Amino acid sequence: MSGEGYAVILVYSTSHAMHIERLLGKRGVACKMIPVPRQISSDCGVCIRIPQAHAAIARETVEAARIEIQGIAHI
Amino acid sequence: MIYFDNAATSWPKPPCVAEAMTHYLAEIGANPGRSGHRLAVAAARVVYGAREAVAELLRAPDPLRVVFGANATEALNLALSGLLRPGDHAVTGSMEHNSVMRPLRALERTGVQVTAVPCTPEGSLDPGDLAAAVRPNTRLIALTHAIDLLAFSGHKSLYGPMGTGGLVIGERVDAGLLTPLKRGGTGSRSEHEEQPEFLPDLCESGTPNAVGLAGLAAGTRWVLAQGVERIREHELALTGQLLAGLAAIPGVTIYGPRDARRQTATVSFKIAGLETSEIGLRLDDEFAILCRVGLHCAPPAHRTLGTFPAGTVRFGMGAFNTAEQVAAALNAVAALAQEAR
User: Fold this and answer.
1) Which residue(s) pair with A8 in the sheet?
2) Which of A2, B144, B290, B316 could potentially form a cystine with B266 if both were Cys, beta carbons 3.0 to 4.6 Å apart?
3) Nearest residue to B201 (alpha-carbon basis) of A41, A48, A67, A16
4) Which residues from B are below 8 Å from A10, CB to CB?
5) What domain range is A48 assigned to?
6) Is B171 left (phi over 0), alpha (psi -120 to 50) or beta?
């Protein structure tokens, strides 16, 4: 069910997370910083949780800003 | 007391700076970018907020290309030693501070070629002389006028605390060619033993001065709220008043352009018959005027002005100085000059 639940944007750096949060905020995407879910990665940092319905906007925004991310995962 | 040493560090700071730092220490406190809990996220937001504020003030399009460090000196060292390799040529001017000259002189010993273009006795640089110094292997031109790389101090005109500064890395600079000054923990890519290659993490290892950056964000936001033009107008008026007043005192020699529109709010002068060190001491002891005397960490600049090695007296004014303070300082200088005649 691609339009339901949440997705997480996995980033390489907290600075990138902050920047993406700001860019998505300007596009009306509700973001929440959460610790990276253990089942997705062993990384100890944060990721950005967004509504799954906004995953496509998020991908487009991140690509336009030329920020390298690990990926966007459905949770 | 009259604080005229703003060119060394601005003081007082806007009250919002101490408030932001106190708030950080009392309410946030965590290490930005190291953990995922709410305080770590709040801390990361503070640091990112400082990046955004500085990027807005300096008109840098990408906050992630604002790299923080301890001061402008560290930023200059990063730019110079991070980009120059043996066989490269670097150009600078003869008015530059030791934070440019010393790293360049050290790089010279590793095989970097350095040209310091002479400035006029007023301290200005002819762009034609600069262009003529450029060679096919010129990699970098380091001047108090940035294009691709801008080193900034956080504790002077941005009104933040000491221990803050940084480098804005322009889009034309390939970060892949930049060697960081330090390597270490960044809170990112922890599974790798190699330094991350992306900005700002490439150049920001170790726990940052987050409390200082909280203050820097507040200071920079204060400057933006006041307006750079408004602060400049205020400083122009004080500088014009000081230059006109000093010029009217017999025995006083002013250095530099002597034109408020062509300089910052920093004025160098001397009084005939008095050593600069004595002037500084007497202004402090007898008039409670705090300024800086000597060479100001810029020996080539003083050689250019013809004031080496005695140096000058420097009044550095800022946003919180007033016309009344300038008038009082002029009376003090006049009294010292009259006594020395």
Assistant:
1) A49, A73
2) B316
3) A16
4) none
5) 6-74
6) alpha
Matching residue, tokens 């934070």: B99
Q: Among all residues of chain A, which has the CA nearest to that of B36? A: A35
Residue B99: strand, helix, or coil: helix
> The tokens 């605390």 sit on which residue?
B161
Domains and CATH numbers, chain B: 15-226 (3.40.640.10), 227-340 (3.90.1150.10)
- Residues B300 and B116 sit within 8 Å (Cβ to Cβ): yes
What pLDDT score was predicted for residue A2?
52
Q: What is the mean pLDDT of chain B?
A: 95
- Render B16-58 in DSSP notation, one character per residue: HHHHHHHHIIIII-SPTTT--SHHHHHHHHHHHHHHHHHHHHT
CATH number for position A53: 3.30.70
pLDDT < 70 positions in chain B: none
d(CA B259, CA A68): 49
Residue A3's pLDDT is 64
Q: Which amino acid is at B148?
A: D
> What total number of domains does chain A contain?
1
Per-residue model confidence as pLDDT tens digits over B235-294: 999 999 999 999 999 999 999 999 999 999 999 999 999 999 999 999 999 999 999 998
User: Is the pLDDT reported for residue A1 higher than 60?
Assistant: no
Is there a domain that residue A65 lies in? yes
ipTM for the whole complex: 0.86
Taking CB atoms and an 8 Å limit, are A45 and B200 in contact across chains? no
Taking CB atoms and an 8 Å cutoff, what residues of chain A touch B36?
A: 33-36, 44-46
- First and final C-alpha spacing in chain A: 11
Query: What is the residue whose two structure tokens read 């008095």?
Result: B274
Name the residue with tokens 């599974």.
B191
Cβ-based contacts of A45 with chain B (< 8 Å): 33-36, 187-188, 190
8 Å CB contact between A57 and A7 = no
**What is the pTM (predicted TM-score) of this model?**
0.93
Query: Are A15 and B198 in contact, with CB atoms under 8 Å apart?
Result: no
pLDDT of A43 reads 67
CB B139 within 8 A of CB B86: no
Long-range contact pairs involving B168-171 (C-beta distance under 8 Å, separation at least 24): B168/B54, B168/B55, B168/B58, B168/B60, B168/B65, B168/B66, B168/B67, B169/B65, B169/B66, B169/B67, B169/B199, B170/B60, B170/B65, B171/B61, B171/B62, B171/B65
Buried b (16+ CB within 10 A) or exposed e, B119-150: beeebebeeeebeebeeeeebbbbeeebeebb
